[in-house]
Amino acid sequence: MKSALDSNRPIYLQIKEAIEEDILNGRLAPEEQIPSNSQLVSHYNINPVTVLKGINLLVDEGIIFKKRGLGMYVSPDAPEKLKRRFSDAFFQEHVEPLTALAKPLGFTLREIHAMIDSAWKGEKND
């Protein structure tokens, strides 16, 4: 769980994203129970309705599900669903704009690969 929330963004979305991040990073496994609403309310010192709004988004997306009387659990296919969604978003938000800019500048695919490899390794591109 994140230690703090950003006051500049809707809190319910941050709750949703924090749970998604925990699933993607393996801190919450498929079929594992997520923190209860009261735990989240207490941890972040926020309104229960705000927590419920973020949780309901995850339920609507099939990322978590309710076991009656037991709590909320990570759906078996949640990691794959999230990876697919984030992969699609990454492609649209980063790869497409990168290629749209690189082509008119005359970069070859090999040069782009070399730049990405360099950035991946933390090297500065000269």
Give the SSE layout:
Layout: H1 11-24, H2 37-44, H3 48-60, E1 64-67, E2 71-74, H4 78-105, H5 109-120
Antiparallel strand pairs: 1-2
Helix pairs in contact: 1-3, 2-3
Radius of gyration: 19 Å
Helicity level? 55-70%
CATH topology of the largest domain: Arc Repressor Mutant, subunit A
Query: Class of the largest domain in CATH?
Result: Mainly Alpha
CATH superfamily of the largest domain: Winged helix-like DNA-binding domain superfamily/Winged helix DNA-binding domain
Strand order of the largest sheet: 1-2
Quaternary class: single chain
Helix and strand string, N-terminal first? HHHEEHH
Q: Tell me the CATH architecture of the largest domain.
A: Orthogonal Bundle
Specify the number of helices: 5
Question: Uncertain spans, ≥5 residues at pLDDT below 50?
Answer: none
| Structural class based on helices, strands and sheet pairing | mainly alpha
SS strand fraction:
5-15%
**Total domain modules:** 2
From the spread of the alpha carbons, the general shape counts as elongated
Kindly state the mean pLDDT as a whole number?
A: 93
Tell me the major beta sheet. 2 strands, antiparallel
Count of beta strands:
2
Alpha-carbon distance between the two ends:
39 Å
